[in-house]
């Protein structure tokens, strides 16, 4: 297998790295690579920052290792290679009445990436995070050998791998529990919400299986925090089965800077808010359209231009969320750097692994164009998060101050001890792990 040198970047296109990458097509080839030249894994590069990058080093890209190895319909357990995507699994198994139990906002995420970042979805309040539905992991360690880890076997290694950003080894394959999928269509109720306080109240009181909110970050004054709440359940199954999506479109070029100017964002957001009737509305949407609304617009990250964007995503404890979110929204709107992509959700019970992001509270995710003023704004938002007792999502991060990490992740020392034992020579270090000093060696 030849290593090919190239420049790679995360989805935010703000952290380019030159590196050597191999793309094995069979597990036997992966095993040979790891025995000869152990290197960190890289999935579909849908993390927004530098999680899958290894500047001036090597990485093994797993996207061609995408086989669905076996499935037990009685238990719902799927044995799958690490490079298979969430969307691939949904497409194959939804017509059979099954689906991934937890799905992030993009179906292009790989199973290895979903485990390594313990992704969450619109149903975290009821289903938890992705890691809670992982039965076992085939993990290739620093010595080049593969072993199966689970809650019953090598529990410490297993838990450190859940949300561990690839620092414990390369995920070869995994067994995951799928959930029932009674229909190919979601019935979505949409309603306007006039401000932050009622938004938090509605999210807290929602009993829908799937819930997500869109925030208008161009609104100020009494409209600060207004947006659209979506609550969804499976629509009744029909004889037509699963709706087919129209073919996706591709953004053909990097958008000019003015495309995300304050007047244009304000106009778009006002239209998006007022498209919902005052009394609310209900509509049916195909599964992939509801769960992955941006996936049909390929390369949508090019809307942010050549300099890309940074994403800020935090989770805040319930007791401090309202006041902190108010301050955050004021800071973002005043900066003029907000984009139309801003999401507010309620998260349920806590993390599966020591570096898993979810904790009970509210999570805000905002895409911010990478321009003058962006880094000071990001730093301010990160510090507000820390002061409120919250944490930053490492899969989305590209610029967090490493000094803030230990307070955000109180189990960091336990993680460091496990990783030090598993990979004492730092073979699986990445740009993210070095930047944030995840291993405590800096």
UniProtKB/TrEMBL annotation:
Domain FAD-binding PCMH-type, residue spans: 14-181
PROSITE patterns named in the record: FAD_PCMH
Keywords recorded for this protein, A-Z: FAD, Flavoprotein
Coiled coil feature spans: none
GO molecular function (one): FAD binding
PANTHER family: D-ARABINONO-1,4-LACTONE OXIDASE, L-GULONOLACTONE OXIDASE
Record protein name field: FAD-binding protein
Organism: Oceanomicrobium pacificus
């Amino acid at each position: 297998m030849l290593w090919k040198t190239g420049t790679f970047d995360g989805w935010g296109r703000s952290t380019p790295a030159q590196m050597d990458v191999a793309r094995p097509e069979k597990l036997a080839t992966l095993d040979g690579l790891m025995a000869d030249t152990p290197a960190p894994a890289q999935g579909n590069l849908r993390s927004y920052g530098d999680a899958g990058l290894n500047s001036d080093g090597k990485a093994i890209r797993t996207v061609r290792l995408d086989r669905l190895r076996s499935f037990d319909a009685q238990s719902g357990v799927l044995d799958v290679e690490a490079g298979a995507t969430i969307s691939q699994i949904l497409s194959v198994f939804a017509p059979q009445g099954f689906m991934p139990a937890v799905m992030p906002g993009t179906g292009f995420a790989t199973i290895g990436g979903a485990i390594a970042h313990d992704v969450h979805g619109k149903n975290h309040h009821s289903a938890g995070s992705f890691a809670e539905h992982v039965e076992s992991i085939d993990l290739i360690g620093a010595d080049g050998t593969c072993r199966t880890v689970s809650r019953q076997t090598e529990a410490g290694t297993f838990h450190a791998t859940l949300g561990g950003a690839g620092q414990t080894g390369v995920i070869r394959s995994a067994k995951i529990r799928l959930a029932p999928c009674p229909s190919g269509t979601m019935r979505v109720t949409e309603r306007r919400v006039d401000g932050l306080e009622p938004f938090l109240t509605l999210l807290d009181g929602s009993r829908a299986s799937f819930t997500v909110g869109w925030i208008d970050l161009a609104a100020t004054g009494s409209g600060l925090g207004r947006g659209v709440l979506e609550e969804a359940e499976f629509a009744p199954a029909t004889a037509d089965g699963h709706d087919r999506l129209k073919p996706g479109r591709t953004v053909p070029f990097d958008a000019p800077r003015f495309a995300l100017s304050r007047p244009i964002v304000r106009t778009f957001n006002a239209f998006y808010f007022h498209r919902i009737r005052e009394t609310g509305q209900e509509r049916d949407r195909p599964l992939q359209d509801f769960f992955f609304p941006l996936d049909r617009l390929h390369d949508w990250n090019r809307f942010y231009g050549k300099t890309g964007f940074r994403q800020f995503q935090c989770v805040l404890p319930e007791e401090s969320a309202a006041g902190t979110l108010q301050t955050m929204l004021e800071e973002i709107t005043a900066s003029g750097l907000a984009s139309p992509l801003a999401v507010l959700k309620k998260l349920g019970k806590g993390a599966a692994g020591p570096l898993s992001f979810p904790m009970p509270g509210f999570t805000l995710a905002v895409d911010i164009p990478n321009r003058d003023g962006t880094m000071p704004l990001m730093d301010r938002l990160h510090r507000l998060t820390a002061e409120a007792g919250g944490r930053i999502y490492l899969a989305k991060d590209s610029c967090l101050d490493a000094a803030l990490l230990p307070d955000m992740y109180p189990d960091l020392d336990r993680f460091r001890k496990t990783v030090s034992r598993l990979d004492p020579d730092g073979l699986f270090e990445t740009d993210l792990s070095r930047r944030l000093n995840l291993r405590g060696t800096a």
